[in-house]
Amino acid sequence: MDLQHWLNEALANHEKWTAEYGAFTPHSSLQVDPAVFGSALAELQDRLRDNYPFFHPRYAGQMLKPPHPAAVVGYLSAMLINPNNHALDGGPATAAMEREVVSSLASMFGYSEEHLGHLTSSGTIANLEALFVARSLHPGRGVAYSSEAHYTHTRMCGVLGIEGFPVPVDGRGRMDLSALEELLRTGKVGTVVVTPGTTALGAIEPVHFVLDIARRYDARVHVDGAYGGFFTLLAGTDLEPEPWEAIASCDSVVVDPHKHGLQPYGCGAVLFRDPSVGRFYLHDSPYTYFTSDELHLGEISLECSRAGAAAAGLWLTLRLLPLTRDGLGEVLAAGRRAAVRWASMIRESEGLELYQEPELDIVTYFPRTSPLTLSAVDAASHRVMETGMNAAVDPIFLSVARASKAAFAARHPEVEADVDGARVLRSVLMKPESEDYLDTLHARVLSLL
């Protein structure tokens, strides 16, 4: 895709639209010396080189990759206008686009047309909103989430002044259902957060079983699909369908288009199955809600000003890569195929040991050491990561995850527990190009042992 061509097209269309309103003279206070601008831009470009190559499949560290060119063009097209999707006054076109993309996300998860939802600036804010509604519906009751859930839930419980209850996990890093039920029996929990795709291991928590248990104790179920939510597109083909199909019966769900949705940062989403929860957002404004009697997005959001450009970028992307198995789903399927194949290669290698079978597109593994102790594994994992990312020639970029002594004992009892835990290597293969680059990546990791 010729990004420069389409960016030029977007700029030309913007200039054509602005010309329709007549010429005017930009204010002198906004004028800058072209030489100074050129110097500052050169400095900016030089400083931006101090980044890891998120675009390249040799980067297999964190959940980072560039947006799709369609998202860039869509975002820029709207950014030049700079609409604010808080009120229809601030962004009528992009507000309509936001409603369309949110409706598509709701359909992807199996919600009916009668839902409530909007884009957010991040998954953190999206989860905050879901827990804010949960607190309003179950005042005085806390929130349960697995000990492998994203740290945002602990943090947002603190922000909201509600008690958080970490639930132990099983041998695959998923919420322990017996421990959950024991906690729910106390009556202290009003909401259970379930994660189909944990950010450390990519473990798919059993949404369907959690939902059954929670309903027996009058608890809401919130799905944190910020990382894994888009994998619902693979349900029934590449993945077992039950956890993903159960999302349709859960009370709320969060997903981050700026992860697997190919968007630039600043694009999360929260959806509620019951639209009546909008009553908890009610507020009044003396000056923003006058151009339409239709509900403004700011009236169903904790955030006020939000970038309309985020909606435009997502809207254009989904026109080209729709929320289907053969559309955006194929992008995710490539990463998952790469993870499954790499796991097989690791099992057959002499120098590496698979820490846990990948379920989505995250692979965890560690060097076989002698002696095979937690302290030796920890040191070797850190050394491989550091050596790889600092190599002057042919660098690779991995990350590490910390595993407790108990977690190691459940998966690898052969590793002597001489310390409380160890780091293991962790690779996120969320770029579809990882599938074709995998042999090179695997060989490079082996060369660092």
From TrEMBL:
Q: Which UniProt keywords apply?
A: Aminotransferase, Lyase, Pyridoxal phosphate, Transferase
Q: Member of which family?
A: Belongs to the group II decarboxylase family.
Q: What organism, scientifically named, is this protein from?
A: Lentzea roselyniae
Entry cofactors:
pyridoxal 5'-phosphate
Q: One GO molecular function term?
A: transaminase activity
**UniProt superkingdom:** Bacteria
- What is this protein identified as? Aminotransferase class V-fold PLP-dependent enzyme
Q: Give the Pfam families listed for this entry.
A: Pyridoxal_deC
